[in-house]
Specification:
2 domains; 40% helix; 7-stranded mixed sheet; single chain; alpha/beta; Rossmann fold; Nucleotidyltransferase, domain 5; 14 strands
C-alpha cells in the first residue's frame, strides 16, 4: 500500500513538473522519449518564447532532418501551450495542408491522452472528455480545434492557404519549403515570401510570437530573407549535424562530433557529405551557399584530366602552399594544403588536402605529402607565418632538407584578397586537375565567406599572387581587381 501511495505521489509530482516544464512534458507524455541535449535546448527556447523570457518575440530553429525538431515544436509544444493557457490562439503551418493537418491530429492525440489529463485536467477538446451538454458548439476537425469552455484554438494551414478571420497569438511555420526543387525556384520562394507578408503576418498582433523551424535549403529562403531584413528581431538557434566550431556554448560535443550519434552517426553523415557536399552544407550544417558561388563562381574554374595535365607539364616546378592550424590541438582548425604549378599563363592546382593533426604528426606528414604530389629540387613549400607556421618552417628546415619558406604576411582581409583574385579565376586562368578533392575545394572557395573554414581561400590567394603576379612586385593586393586580362 505504501509503495503504491509513494508511486502515486511521485506520479503527481512528475505531472506538476510537466505542467511547468516543456522538456519534462515531452518525457511525461511519452515514456519512451529519449531527451537529448539539443531536444532540451529547443524545448527550453520554445518555453522561454511563450513566457516572454527571450530577448525577442521571434524564434528561428535550424536543425538537420530527422532530428526531432517537428516532434517538439509542431506536435508537443502547441499541446503544452494550450494546457498552460487554454485561451491561446495558435496557427500552425507547413509547406502543404496535408502535413499541417498531420501536426494538428498529433496535437489532438496528445491532448486526448490520459497523461495530458493528469497534467492539464482543465484543457480538453470536443470528444470523450467533454460533457455531453457542451460538445455541440466546439469545433474539432483536422483543420481546426478549440479548447472546450475557453475558445482557444489551433488552426492548421498550408503555405499559400487562407487565414482570413484568424487572429493568432502564436504562429508556427514548420518547413515552408518541401525540397530542393522548390528551393531552387525563385518563383516559389517569392510565393512563400508573399504568403508570409500578405497572409501570415496580417493575422498577428503586437504581442504575438513567431517560430520558424526549417532546414536551410537556400540563402534566399524564407529564413534568409528575414535575417537579411530584420536580423536583430530574431533569436536564432542553429545546430549543425557535425560540430565545426565552439560558437554555441550549450553544445557539449567535441569538434567533429555528430549531433545524434545513436541515430545519425558521424560515419553516415560523412557519407552524405561525400555524395553531395552542397546539400550536406545546407540541410545538415545550416550553411546554404549561393547557387554557383558567392565571390567565386563554380563555373569559373577550368578542369583538365590528369593525363592531359601530364602531357602539358614539361618539368615546371610544383609549389606547395600551406595554411597551418592555430594550435597543435587536433580539434582546432585544420591545416590546408594545395599543390600548384604554373604552365604558360595559367595556374594549375594539382591537388588539395586538409588534415587535423597535432604538431609532431604534421611535421611527419608534410614531407611525405609533398614528395607524393610532385616535389622536386626546384619546388618550394610556402607556409603562412601565422599561428604555428613559423615553428613548422623552422622545424622542417632543420629536419627535412626541403626547400621551405614563408609566404608574405597579408595586409588585407581574406574577403578583400579573394575579391582581388576573383578576376583571375573568372577569366579561366585557374585550372583544376581532376580528382576526388575537387568538390571539397570548390565548395569551400565558392562558399566563402559563409563557410566555417577558409584554409583553401588563403592558399589559393597566395598561389595566384605568387604564380601570376610575382613579376609585378611590389604590388598592392587591392589593385589586383583592377588589372585587365
Amino acid at each position: 500500500m505504501k509503495a503504491r501511495e509513494s508511486a502515486e505521489r511521485m506520479r503527481e509530482m512528475a505531472a506538476r513538473v510537466a505542467g511547468t516544464s516543456l522538456p519534462a512534458f515531452l518525457c511525461f507524455t511519452n515514456a519512451a522519449y529519449r531527451l537529448e541535449w539539443f531536444h532540451r535546448l529547443i524545448a527550453e527556447k520554445c518555453q522561454a518564447l511563450l513566457e516572454g523570457r527571450l530577448a525577442t518575440s521571434k524564434l528561428m530553429i535550424f536543425v538537420p532532418p530527422q532530428h526531432g525538431k517537428s516532434e517538439i515544436v509542431s506536435r508537443k509544444f502547441p499541446a503544452w501551450a494550450l494546457g498552460v493557457n487554454p485561451l491561446l490562439k495558435i496557427v500552425g503551418t507547413s509547406y502543404s495542408a496535408d502535413l499541417a493537418q498531420q501536426f494538428s491530429r498529433a496535437i489532438q492525440r496528445t491532448i486526448d491522452s490520459t497523461e495530458y489529463a493528469e497534467v492539464f485536467p482543465g484543457t480538453f477538446l470536443n470528444g470523450q472528455r467533454a460533457a455531453p451538454g457542451v460538445q455541440g458548439g466546439w469545433i474539432r476537425n483536422a483543420d481546426q480545434f478549440e479548447t472546450v469552455g475557453f475558445g482557444g484554438f489551433y488552426k492548421a494551414v498550408g503555405v499559400g492557404g487562407s487565414l482570413t478571420g484568424t487572429p493568432a497569438d502564436l504562429g508556427i511555420i514548420d518547413d515552408p519549403i518541401k525540397d530542393a526543387l522548390e528551393a531552387s525556384s525563385e518563383t516559389y520562394r517569392n510565393r512563400v515570401w508573399e504568403w508570409y507578408t500578405d497572409v501570415f503576418l496580417t493575422r498577428l498582433h503586437n504581442s504575438s510570437r513567431q517560430i520558424l523551424i526549417q532546414t536551410r535549403w537556400h540563402t534566399d529562403d524564407l529564413a534568409g530573407r528575414l535575417l537579411e531584413r530584420e536580423c536583430d528581431s530574431w533569436t536564432v538557434v542553429s545546430i549543425p549535424a557535425i560540430r565545426e566550431d565552439r560558437t554555441m556554448k550549450e553544445d557539449p560535443r567535441e569538434i567533429g562530433g555528430a549531433l545524434w550519434e545513436e541515430r545519425h552517426s558521424r560515419e553516415r553523415l560523412l557519407e552524405i557529405e561525400q555524395r553531395s557536399p552542397r546539400t550536406f552544407a545546407a540541410l545538415y550544417q545550416q550553411r546554404p551557399t549561393i547557387q554557383g558561388g558567392n565571390i567565386i563562381r563554380r563555373d569559373w574554374f577550368r578542369h583538365v584530366s590528369l593525363s592531359d595535365f601530364r602531357r602539358r607539364h614539361t618539368g615546371e616546378p610544383v609549389v606547395f602552399f600551406i595554411d597551418t592550424a592555430y594550435t597543435d590541438r587536433s580539434d582546432n582548425d585544420p591545416t590546408g594544403i594545395i599543390a600548384t604549378c604554373r604552365i604558360g599563363d595559367d595556374l594549375y592546382v594539382t591537388h588539395a588536402h586538409k588534415v587535423l593533426m597535432r604538431f609532431p604528426d604534421l611535421l611527419r606528414f608534410l614531407p611525405e605529402y609533398v614528395r607524393e604530389h610532385g616535389y622536386t629540387v626546384r619546388s618550394t613549400i610556402r607556409i603562412e607565418p601565422k599561428a604555428n607556421g613559423l615553428s613548422v618552417i623552422d622545424q622542417m628546415k632543420d629536419t627535412t632538407g626541403l626547400n621551405v619558406t614563408q609566404t608574405p604576411s597579408p595586409r588585407d582581409s581574406k574577403e578583400t584578397r579573394l575579391n582581388a583574385a576573383s578576376p583571375t579565376v573568372e577569366c579561366g586562368r585557374v585550372v583544376l586537375v581532376d580528382g576526388a578533392w575537387n568538390e571539397m575545394f570548390v565548395e569551400e572557395v565558392c562558399g566563402f565567406p559563409s563557410k566555417p573554414h577558409d584554409e583553401f581561400v588563403d592558399v589559393l590567394c597566395y598561389a595566384i599572387d605568387y604564380h601570376l603576379f610575382s613579376q609585378f612586385r611590389p604590388i598592392d593586393l587591392s589593385r589586383l581587381s583592377r588589372i585587365v586580362y
